[in-house]
TrEMBL record:
One of its GO terms (biological process) is regulation of nitrogen utilization. InterPro entries: N-reg_PII (IPR002187), N-reg_PII-like_a/b (IPR011322), N-reg_PII/ATP_PRibTrfase_C (IPR015867), N-reg_PII_CS (IPR017918), N-reg_PII_urydylation_site (IPR002332). Belongs to the P(II) protein family. Homotrimer. It comes from the Bacteria. The lineage of its organism: Bacteria, Pseudomonadati, Pseudomonadota, Alphaproteobacteria, Hyphomonadales. GO terms for molecular function: ATP binding; enzyme regulator activity. GO terms for cellular component: cytosol. Keywords: Nucleotide-binding, Phosphoprotein, Transcription, Transcription regulation. This is Nitrogen regulatory protein P-II. The modification O-UMP-tyrosine is found at Y51. The keyword Acyltransferase does not apply. It comes from Candidatus Viadribacter manganicus. Gene3D superfamilies: 3.30.70.120.
Amino acid sequence: MKLITAIIKPSRLDPVLDALKEVGCGGITVSEVRGFGRQKGKTEVYRGAEYEVKLLPKMKLEIVAQADAVERIIEAISEAAKTGKIGDGKIWVADLDSILRIRTGETGQAAVET
């Protein structure tokens, strides 16, 4: 099993969710997060006063998937999230040692199947 984590622009969330549904993604966790990479924040103006926003709003997606589905899910996310501009985000994959469904005590693949 693998954990796919993606950081994307908030404006691209709905297209990414639609793309994941199309490839048969079984479940997803979405969190509102803040951070920066190459963008290093941005300068905005409010009531004539200029101020710097150092941490930009982003969406964090976490998906547990079988190893054979990882490439399909990554492709769906990257195609739907891509704008071609700086700040489109990142995707990374990590191995999962164990998974437990708290309610039933199921482990492994059975714990993530719906």
